[in-house]
């Protein structure tokens, strides 16, 4: 039946593919994929022979419209990305938005997502967190982005490219302080899966000392800033109150 299925695929370990995802991809009329060649490997592994078309958020309007037309004709389309959950630092937003605007049913098929896997096993507070995706690539813009997060009290989660991870950890130590606790989660669900928790400056040095830690796919997580203590806040408001009272006639 007519629907756009947003289907998660594994982030490394093919055994993480959920049965419903296989079924939906097999039964769909069309699969929109970030990189059709990449997805072909997933398809052969699971005996899926549904036609694939390329889709990115910068795909031209005509391509997006062709996919939407198929949906409007009553066909079923599935959206996948190279790995993990579509729309999470991956294409799909425009298609989902447009499909919903046209009254088309959009159905998630949940599965692997790198930041959820990372956070679930890191040992940092996970009751509240903020997902920051990729930081800007240029040093200046990255430093400004981190500066704006310096007072964030929730655990912060970032995706980072391997060739930038050491510089990013240094920049994080500058912005958040050397002692702020952080975790690198690398190659999740794969043979060289690694978690390492340490204060930022130590973590940066550890990553720099071993080039293996600068390879593969990486999630960085940083503990939030210490909450300002309640009595600290109280004395601050008392001080402000006293100043204000002094000004009263
Ligand atoms: N949509 C994906 C998801 O659900 O997580 C994320 C896509 S994003 C383009 C790719 C980034 O996700 C990588 O650069 C890395 O930061 C993170 N990532 C993906 N797979 C990973 C893995 N197996 N281990 C660690 N990080 C991973």
UniProtKB/TrEMBL annotation:
Alphabetical keyword list: Cytoplasm, Methyltransferase, rRNA processing, S-adenosyl-L-methionine, Transferase
GO cellular component: cytoplasm
Enzyme class name: transferase
Keyword set includes rRNA-binding: no
Entry annotated with the keyword rRNA processing: yes
Catalytic activity, as annotated: cytidine(1402) in 16S rRNA + S-adenosyl-L-methionine = 2'-O-methylcytidine(1402) in 16S rRNA + S-adenosyl-L-homocysteine + H(+)
Enzyme Commission code(s) on record: 2.1.1.198
Family (UniProt): Belongs to the methyltransferase superfamily. RsmI family.
Free-text function comment from the UniProt entry: Catalyzes the 2'-O-methylation of the ribose of cytidine 1402 (C1402) in 16S rRNA.
Protein name (database record): Ribosomal RNA small subunit methyltransferase I
Gene: rsmI
